Amino acid sequence: MSRSLLTVILAAGKGTRMRSDLPKVLHRIAGRSMLGHVLALAQAVGGDKLAVVVGPGMDSVRKEALAGARDASVYVQENQLGTADAVLAARDAIAGHDGDLLVLYADTPLLRAETIRMLIGELDRGAQLAVLGFEARDPGSYGRLVTATDGTLTAIREAKDATAAELAIRLCNSGVMAFRLQNPLEVLGKIGNANAKGEFYLTDAVEIVRAGGGRAAVVVCDEDEVLGVNARRELAAAEAIWQGRARERVMAEGATLIAPETVWLAFDTVLGRDVVIEPNVFFGPGVTVEDGAEIKANSHLEGARVGAGARVGPFARLRPGAVLGRDVHVGNFVEVKNAALGDGAKANHLSYLGDGSVGAKANIGAGTIFCNYDGFLKHKTEVGEGAFVGSNTALVAPVKVGAGAYIGSGSVITKDVAPGALALERSVQEERPGWAEKFRTLMARRKAAANK
Ligand code: UD1
Ligand code: CA
């Protein structure tokens, strides 16, 4: 099956029912656009050539297509005249391609690579056309798959054009199709629009292929897999299905999720072996958690790397560029952004560590703030290995604290601190012996006088 594969992804739908300024296929599931998911699927099944069909003026969709697959070609379908017309928008890609043709939909983000491989497997077994079908809980307006007694596909009938007997069929068309044809453009070119909707139906290809002596096959998948997103409630349903699968996957790979249904993973989350994730943890894109690390409840991570054996949270926030070494501790109400913490460093309570670095084994006291922003520019804070930063310290960047140095609590550090030094920035503590008793006596007398 070393045939070259051209995948045409239909992404022209505006998605009016989303009630959104964003084109439908740019809405996200697990932190990646639906189009991004479908592009990744096409690449996973070895789609070496990709064509994306967008609607007029959809520059943002074009950009997303090229971001997901740099060598994709993007075509515009000027008028939405039907699914066959949409595929034909990519006519130039099809004409220049010698191999299989796969049609996917950018608003159907849950398809699995195995399923597409099964579809292409039907082509390997001699079918010229393979259609992905599913048993619909509610067949409604789906196209019905009409099959012969030997299981081959004889026609796809759109609901509006179907007879009562055809409407009773529960095996429905997902829309996804694969072709192995000498000349796909010839078949597509024969499709007319003499039907109830007056559209050029891609589904008519079945009867055209059969009339030419070819065989059409059906592969059946689970209905969840071909869930199409048209409105926000379906977007949420797709997210839920995607999350369910991802949780299963990370657990199968050796992570413990104490309450899996409360953990939100991103499309690219990587969890190592024996990682433990407590309840209510959210992963944005770009997070890797290495073996044996623990993410405690109610933490939010995005664009971060957590080293082996590290402990994060509860209530921690790791923002893009947070890189924690081995056995680092980041505790409650600590925010880390664009900062690296060396092996064994600790910031256990109430801190903001933004734009800088903390050396191995350094200790960051409660309430320490990296003052990284002066209202115009961001600056760096560097804390050396083994340094001890006392509680409630403000490190005004750019500033460096040398290895092994101590900073007294409550200091506002604006100048570099030498390695091994103690830096203190606060007024000297005064003490007046017996002052409290004298004060109380004086005030009690005043109050008595005022109340007379
Ligand atoms: C289509 C199928 C139907 C199937 C159903 C599954 C046809 C004729 N019918 O019906 O058998 O059960 O999908 O959801 O193919 N699109 C374009 N340009 C167009 C028309 C459609 O890009 O001119 C895209 C849409 O954005 C959408 C997809 O193709 O993503 C399906 O089109 P839609 O009009 O929704 O087809 P259905 O009537 O749902
Ligand atoms: Ca002070």
Taken from the alpha-carbon principal axes, the silhouette is: elongated
**Low-pLDDT sequence parts:** none
CATH topology of the largest domain: Spore Coat Polysaccharide Biosynthesis Protein SpsA, Chain A
Second-tier CATH architecture of the largest domain = Alpha-Beta Complex
Ligands and ions found: uridine-diphosphate-N-acetylglucosamine, calcium ion
Description:
The protein folds into two domains: 5-226, Spore Coat Polysaccharide Biosynthesis Protein SpsA, Chain A (Alpha-Beta Complex), CATH 3.90.550.10; 254-423, 3 Solenoid (UDP N-Acetylglucosamine Acyltransferase, domain 1). Helices cover 22% and strands 29% of the residues. α1 packs parallel to α2 (59-68). The longest helix is centred in the middle third of the chain and has 21 residues, at 232-252. The radius of gyration is 31 Å and the shape is elongated. The structure holds uridine-diphosphate-N-acetylglucosamine (UD1) and calcium ion. Uridine-diphosphate-N-acetylglucosamine is lined by residues 10, 12-13, 53, 77, 80-83, 85-86, 105, 107, 142-143, 156, 158, 172-175, 201-203, 228.
